[in-house]
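Dear colleagues,

As part of the handover before I leave the project, I'm documenting each prediction I ran so the next person doesn't have to rerun anything. This entry is a single chain, and its sequence is reproduced below.
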Amino acid sequence: MTKVATTDRLPLDDLRPVLMGLFGEVGSIMATAKKLHREGGAYAGYRHAVEEEFGDALWYFAALCRRLQLNADDILIKNTTSEEFAPTIVSNYNLDSRNSLISAIDELPCLDETLLKLGEATALLLKINTGDENVRILLKSFMQEYFCTLQVAHVSFSKIVYSNIEKTCGRFLESDSSLLPTFDSNFPEEERLPCEFEINITQRKSGRIHLRWNGVFIGDPLTDNILDADGFRFHDVFHLANAAILHWSPTFRGLIKQKRKSDPVIDEAEDGGRAIVVEEGLIAWIFSRAKYLNFFEGQDSISFDLLKVVQQFVQGYEVEACPLNLWERAILDGYAVFREVRTHNSGIIIGSRNSRTIKFMPLARG
């Protein structure tokens, strides 16, 4: 629970944002469970979704304890050591275990019943304030229902703790640059993305966009491919941002013909057509959101929900190793350059993998 302090960005003198966040996450647990109940095996995303919601609820619980100046770990251990629950709830961190919670109950209640009780316990917390004498009782009641619901849902407590720590730290904490992934350092230079690059983007009278690298045109001329012109013809900027900041772009790698062909497995799985489609699809999806947010102008952060979808989009590919804050930087910096290119209808894109940066420079007028 000590990890919460390093990722907690909410005001410390106001309980309401944390209480509302906890209430919302418990509601999400109930909604996810309802989908499972309604759709059964057809709801393929249940396991990941319910683990994430349980983890987020636990984060808000720990943040609430922090504001009440109570030790969350102490509440987790001491207040659940009863005839219902054994103290190994917190101490057992076996990620391979289906459920780290050990119960003395022979017959567990049904899921609907436990969800209703969890909701009731959460609703009671909405009324607390820092001066309540019965705050420990209410917190204990919530945690008992929380752990009971974990058991009925067959969710590992240790798994949600570790997953939530990884997610929140990856989102809110600045990563050590020396520990960030780079995906082609063990390959020959001709198979690596360039450490430094300049790409000229020009728009001709036809409205088509052309890219040039080291004096050579690369890729196909592009248009917006939509009736309502929105600047998507410049979307290669985002591939360049990915290459510079994430050290990943199967599309850009393909354009400059620097795939990792010395390893046939990597060439096919990470640099092949499907990986390219994933990157193109992700960029198109983010663009569909960004165009209604003024292409992130004036924003210094990206919504957590958007970043979580990004994370899900790239599961199974090497770039999933990149923390969410690095994705946030790639998106925001990429769109800052995109806005400049869109304004000028041209430009020079300067990318540096060494500094993980991407910059815009206007083309010289001849």
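Residues 178-361 form one domain. The chain has a mean pLDDT of 86.

All the best with the project,
I.
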